[in-house]
Amino acid sequence: MDSTLPAVAEELLKEIKKAFQETSHDTFSFRLKFIFGPSAVPALDLVDQRSVTRVTSPSGRAAYQVLGSSGKLYTCYSSCHFCTCPAFGFSVLQKSESLLCKHILAVYLSQAMGACQELTVSEEQLTSILLAEEEDEG
């Protein structure tokens, strides 16, 4: 993970990955809630529902799509800790109330838990996915 997340958050996500490899699943709930606040439980719900899909193209470009609880698909970029959801724009960027939205946190947790769906698409399809998000915002 990139160093733009606070070190404590990065360390916690590394511990979660290790814990899931060792199958001690329930030990980090309190820490998740403490660090990530109200996004923690909804993010875990998204992971449980297998709502996170890593979309890759033959060139190696990748983005994540998360099916939100409202049924809307959000595109997330883990490399720059960005999500297209309104909560990210408001709570994370505008007000600085949270480190991440539930969708980005679900991406990181899915990676750590090995619960990410995988989808390979053509370069054109990935471009369409990315452009569709721009059109939705405009």
Description:
There is one protein chain. The chain is of the alpha+beta class. It has one domain (7-119). The chain is built from six helices and five strands, in the order αααββββααβα. Strands 4-3-2-1-5 form a five-stranded mixed β-sheet. A hairpin with a 5-residue loop joins strand 1 and strand 2 (62-67). The N and C termini lie far apart (30 Å). Residues 74-112 form the SWIM-type domain. It holds the Pfam family SWIM. One of its GO terms (molecular function) is zinc ion binding. This is ZSWM7 protein. InterPro entries: Znf_SWIM (IPR007527).
Could you give the topology of this structure?
Blueprint: H1 7-21, H2 29-36, H3 40-48, E1 52-56, E2 62-67, E3 73-77, E4 82-83, H4 86-94, H5 102-113, E5 117-120, H6 123-137
Parallel strand pairs: 1-5
Antiparallel strand pairs: 1-2, 2-3, 3-4
In short:
49% of the residues lie in helices and 16% in strands. The protein has 6 helices and 5 strands; from the N terminus they run H-H-H-E-E-E-E-H-H-E-H. It has a 5-stranded mixed sheet.
